[in-house]
Amino acid sequence: MLRRLPARSAALCSLLMLGCLSQAHAADYTGFGFVFEGDLEYGGDDIATLSFVDGSSQDIKAGQGVSLALGGHYRAGDSPFSVRGTIGYKYVTTKASNADISIGRTVFELVGNYLISDSWWVGAGITHQTGIKFDGDGWTPDIDFDDATGPTIEVGWRWFALSYTNLKYKGEFQGDIDASSFGLTAVSKF
């Protein structure tokens, strides 16, 4: 049986790769360009709790996941304002070796940024998630959630940021489920 790289290790590798790819920070980019972004997010209500034969358990949270995204950015001349738009995929799985219990969703994001100094910046925008699906892999029922849209804010230094996104998921048989999350974001502009 093939073993997957644990989600935490994959996320850390992704963030380190983004840091290595970044050769400059937001103040150095003007005009149009491309963005590669990685996020490691945690939070929200528990969708399921898995119990393992070794006695341990794992909660699957609605806002939890690792995201990779591509997009574009624009900054006019020496303006302290810029905007970036991305499309990506957010995913979280469990440590189960005999099942692929996971949540996946496509993420669209549009964020405006303001440079406070050459290194520090703040951002605010909107996040839209679609195709939100909890896959129980036959161990627990699958859940399809409606699309969700909510605000996101960021405080960043160079190419890293701390973020907060406020989202609610709604499924066919569920009430509102909090899918809000805190995250660490790495943004590489080129």
TrEMBL record:
Keyword entries, A-Z: Signal
Top-level taxon: Bacteria
Signal is among the record's keywords: yes
UniProt key word Signal: yes
Annotated signal peptide: 1-26
Protein name as it appears in the record: Outer membrane protein beta-barrel domain-containing protein
